[in-house]
Fold this sequence. Notes:
Layout: E1 12-16, E2 22-29, E3 33-39, E4 42-48, E5 56-62, E6 66-67, H1 71-78, E7 90-100, E8 105-114, E9 117-132, E10 138-149, E11 168-182
Antiparallel strand pairs: 1-4, 1-11, 2-3, 2-11, 3-6, 4-5, 5-7, 7-8, 8-9, 9-10, 10-11
Amino acid sequence: MTSPARTAIPTGTWTVDPAHSRVEFQVKHLGIATVRGNFGSFSGTLVIGDDLAGSTASGSVEVATVTTNEDQRDAHLRSPDFFDAETYPQISFESTAITQLDEEEFRILGNLTLHGITKEITLHAEVQGTETDPWGNERVGLEVSGQISRGDFEMKFNQALGSGNVVVSDKVKIALDISAVKSA
């Protein structure tokens, strides 16, 4: 009889602490520079069971809180050309499987709903550690990364350039820096 593999995250329910976390994306602009953006309002939960197969990860972001530190671009991102924040106010993720790669690394398969379309994506998560904060709360830190195609979510706004590049790459990198607090 084999016992479940140990993970670096203790069992329990963990809630993302937005004050100490970040939800970012990166996309190539003109094929030569990377534009980084983030969402100011988001939430997430990680439920780790005795058996990792029954564990789950979920989260959502408020699309209207997108920022790239450029007001005109941010307004364009909220428009129907991109996120269409008025019609699709949230982006959400629900895991379907979490696979342990080693004690600190995991592969998370799940459904991402963006721009009204749900697609399966793969995320890579690496545990940065656990700690008890000065107020007695158990915390876990995670770095989560992945990549999506804008076209898969019907976000096709673009313009071809004479060089063969396009204004906005189809490929978007996702980067989450998460600090989560264990529920009592």
